From TrEMBL, chains A, B, C:
Keyword Membrane recorded: yes
Record protein name field: RHL protein
Gene3D superfamilies per UniProt: Ammonium transporter AmtB like domains
GO CC terms in record: plasma membrane
Transmembrane feature ranges: 12-31, 47-65, 72-91, 106-125, 132-149, 198-214, 226-244, 279-298, 319-338
Residue ranges of domain Ammonium transporter AmtB-like in the record: 15-338
Protein family membership: Belongs to the ammonium transporter (TC 2.A.49) family. Rh subfamily.
Gene Ontology terms, MF aspect: ammonium channel activity
Keyword rRNA processing: no
GO biological process, one term: ammonium homeostasis
Short name of any one Pfam family annotated for the protein: Ammonium_transp
Organism: Rostratula benghalensis
Cell compartment(s), UniProt: Membrane
Amino acid sequence: MSSNYRNFRNSVPWLILFLEAVFIALFYFLFSDKDLSFVSYPDFQDVNHMMIFGFGFFLTFLKRYGFSSTGFNLLIIVLGVQCSALMELLSDFRLKMPQEDGLTKITKATVSVTAVVISTGAVLGKTNPVQLVLMTVVEMIFFHISKWINSIFLQVPDNSSMMHVHLFGAYFGLAVSSCCSEPSPRSEKNASTPKSDLLSMLGTLFLWVFWPSFNSVLSMGENWKVIYNTYIALAVSAVTAFTFSAMTTKDGKFRMAHIHSAVLAGGVTLSYTDHRIQYPWIAMILGLLASVITILGSSCLQRCLNPALKIHDSSGVHFTFGFPAVLGALAEVILIAVENE
Amino acid sequence: MSSNYRNFRNSVPWLILFLEAVFIALFYFLFSDKDLSFVSYPDFQDVNHMMIFGFGFFLTFLKRYGFSSTGFNLLIIVLGVQCSALMELLSDFRLKMPQEDGLTKITKATVSVTAVVISTGAVLGKTNPVQLVLMTVVEMIFFHISKWINSIFLQVPDNSSMMHVHLFGAYFGLAVSSCCSEPSPRSEKNASTPKSDLLSMLGTLFLWVFWPSFNSVLSMGENWKVIYNTYIALAVSAVTAFTFSAMTTKDGKFRMAHIHSAVLAGGVTLSYTDHRIQYPWIAMILGLLASVITILGSSCLQRCLNPALKIHDSSGVHFTFGFPAVLGALAEVILIAVENE
Amino acid sequence: MSSNYRNFRNSVPWLILFLEAVFIALFYFLFSDKDLSFVSYPDFQDVNHMMIFGFGFFLTFLKRYGFSSTGFNLLIIVLGVQCSALMELLSDFRLKMPQEDGLTKITKATVSVTAVVISTGAVLGKTNPVQLVLMTVVEMIFFHISKWINSIFLQVPDNSSMMHVHLFGAYFGLAVSSCCSEPSPRSEKNASTPKSDLLSMLGTLFLWVFWPSFNSVLSMGENWKVIYNTYIALAVSAVTAFTFSAMTTKDGKFRMAHIHSAVLAGGVTLSYTDHRIQYPWIAMILGLLASVITILGSSCLQRCLNPALKIHDSSGVHFTFGFPAVLGALAEVILIAVENE
C-alpha cells in the first residue's frame, strides 16, 4: 500500500464529515413543513427493508465482502438518501412547487438511491471507499437531472418519473466500471463460497418478496393493480428462471447464478408498465420474456460482448437490471401506442 | 445415475414450461376484474414473507439442502400459487360466484400453497425435482376438491374453509412419503450441522413472528381478536416448548429439535378456532396442550409408530403440523358444542 | 459441574411451568374486553419482528451463543410479555382505569420487554438460565413500578411514560452484572468469529430498520413526524459511526464493533424527544452527538472506567444504550425549557 494511497484513505472520514455538515446546514435553511402523507408507513418500511437487507446481501456473493458489503451498503444508502432528499428540496425550491411532507420525501429519496446501489454492484472489488462515496454524490446529482428532464421535457407524470432508476443505475455503473482498471481475473477477490452463495440467495429472496412494494409505493391510487401485476410477473419470472437454467446447463441442473439474477427480471421490467397493464396475462408474458433475455444475456455477455468492450461487471448488473429495464421501456412504448389507437 | 433417470431429468424444464404455458392461456380466458380488495396489502406481504423465508429456512436443517431447499421452496410456491389461483378461478366460474379481486385471489392461493410446502417437508431427501413439481400440481387439485367439499357439504363459512391446510398438508405428505422408498438412515443426506441448525432456527423464528398474520389474513371483521388469541397461544407454546424440552432430556438441557417444532404448535392449533375464542385463557390452554402433544408425539413417533408403519418423515411434519391441527379440529368441535348449549 | 448446580438446573422447567400456570390463572380472573385498538397491526408486527430478530441476532456476537442467544431471547421475550401484560392489567385494575384492548396491551408489553433484553446483553456469559428467568420477572416488576412513578408523580403523559426503557434496561443490567462474578477474560466464551460477527451485523440492521416503528408505535396522533425524525437521526448516526470509526482506529479502517453499536445511537436518543422536535436539523444534530459519545464512550469505558468499577459489560450495553439514553433525557429537558420560554 503506497503512502500516497494511505493519505488518500485518511481523507475518507473528513470527506464524509464535511458532506454531513453541508447536509445539516442545507436542511436548516430549506426545510418546511407539510402534514399529510400519501405514502403509508408500512409501504415505506417495506422499501427500506428491501434496500438494507435485499441489496446488502445481494452483493455478498464475493467471499471477501461479507461484512464490508452489508456495511458499505448501509453507508451508501444513508448518504444517498440525505443527498437525494436535498436535491429534491432544491428542485422544489427553484421550481416553486409545493413542498411534500417528510415521509414522502424520504420514500422518494430511498427509491432514487437504488440507482447508486445497483451501480455499486458493477464496480465492487475495483473501487476504494473514497471513490464509492464520491460516486454516490455524483450519481445522485445526475439522477436528479435526468428525473428533471423526464418531468419537464418528456412530460412524464410525477409518480413514474423516477421509474428509470434501474436502467440509470445499471448503465451508470457500467460506465464507471469501464473507467476503472480491471482486477486480475484470477485474484481471490472474485471467488465465491457456498456460504456467501447462500447469503446472496437470501438477498435475492428479500428483493423478490418486497419488489411489489417497491413498484407500488409511489403509484397513487391504483395501488392494488400494480401490486397484483408485479407479483404475477415475478412469479412467472421465477418459474422461467428455473426452467431455462436447467435447459442451458449441460447436466440439466439448476445453476445458482442464473436463478440469482433471473427471478427478479419480471419486477424490473414491470417497474415502468405496471399501472398500464389491464390483464394479468400481459404481465405474465412480460415476466417470461424478461427472464429469458436475462439468462440468454448472461451467457452471451460473458462470452462475447464483455471481453470485446473491456467491461468488467462484477455482479452482472448489465443483464440483471439493464436488459429487463430496456425491455420494460420498449413494452411501455408499445402499450402507449396500442392505447392511443 | 442411470441413463433412464437422466432422460427423465431432462424433461423437468419442458414439463415446467408446458405448465407455465397452460397457466398463461387459462389466465387469458378466465380473468375478469374487480376493484376493491378486503385483504390489506401489509397482511398479504406478511404471509408472503412468511412463506418464502419461514418455510424456506425451516427446511434447511439437512446439511446438503442449503441452497436447494430455499430455491425449490421458491419454485414450488410460485408454481403452486398460479395453480391454486387457476383452480379458484375455475371453481368460481363453474359455481357462477362473483369473482374476487387480484390481491384476494393471490392471498388465498398463497395460503393454500402452505399445504404443498408442509408436504415437501415429509418427502425431502427422497424425491427428485420432477416428482416435487408433479406433487405440487396434484396436491393443489386435491386441496381445492377438499375445500369445495368443505364449502358445499359441510357448510363451512368461506373464510375458514381453507384452515385445514396444515392438516391436509401433513397427512398428504405422509401418504406420499410412505409410497417412496426409504433412504438408508445412515446416509450423509440426513446429517445436520450447527450452521444448518441455526438457519433452521431462523426459519422457525420467521414462522413464529408471522403466524398471527397467517391466521388473521382471511378472517374478515374480527381481525384483532384473531391476532391477539394467536399471539398469546404462540407465546404459551414457546414457554411450554422450552420447559418440556428440558424435562424430557436427561441432562436437563434444551434440545433444539423440540423447540424447533413445538414453539409453532399453538399457532397451528389456533388456525381453526381463533375467531371463536372469547377469553385469552382458552387460547393459552390450547397453546400449552398443543406444545405438550407435539413434544410427546415427537418422542413416541420416532421410537414406536414410525418404524412400525414404515413411515419416514424427514422433518417431522407429523408431530409439528399434524398433531396440533388434529387438536385444533377437536377444540373447534367442543367450542361449537358449548356455544350451542 | 457440581451436584448442587445440577439440582438447581433441574428446577428450571418447574419454575417456568409454575410461572405459566400463574399467568393463565391471573388472565382468567383479570381479563376483560375492549374492541377498538389504537395500535395498528403492521406497527405491532414491526416491533415484534424487531424484538425477535434484531435483539436475537444482536447478541450472537459471542461464538458459543449462536443458538442459545436466539433461543433464550425468544424465551425471555414471551415470558416477559406475559408478565408485563399482567402487571399492566393489575395496575389498571387498582387505579380503576378503563382497560385497553388486547393488541394495545401486548404492544405495550413488547415495548417494556426491551428493558429485559438489553439487560441480558450485559450479563451474557455470566448467568445460568434460572437466573435469567428470575431476572426477567424481577426486572418487569421494577420497570412497572418506575413507569407508575413516571405517570403519577412526574406527570409524564401516558404515551411516553415507558420511553425510559433503554435507560432502565442498560443500568439494571449493569447493576446485575456487577453482582455476578467476572468470567476469566481469556476464556473461550468471549471469543467472536467472522461468522458470528456477520450475524451480529444482521441483528444491528434489523434494529436499524425497525427503530422508527419502535419509537412511533405508542405515539398517538403525530405518527409521521416521529417516524421522520427518528429515521433522519438514525441516518446521521450511521454516517457518523463510519466516520468516527475510521478516525479513531490507527489504520483508518472501519471497525465492526464501533459500527455495531453507534449506528443505533440516534434512535435511542430520539426515543424521548421525537414528538417534540419541530425541525429535522435538531434530530440530525442529536443523531450526530449520540453517535460521537457512543464511540468515545466505548473506548473510554473499556480502558478506564470498567476496570476501575469492576464492571464487566459483555456486549457493551453501557455505551450502546446507556449513554445515548442519558443524552436523550438531557435533550428532552432542554427542549421543554426552550418551549416554555
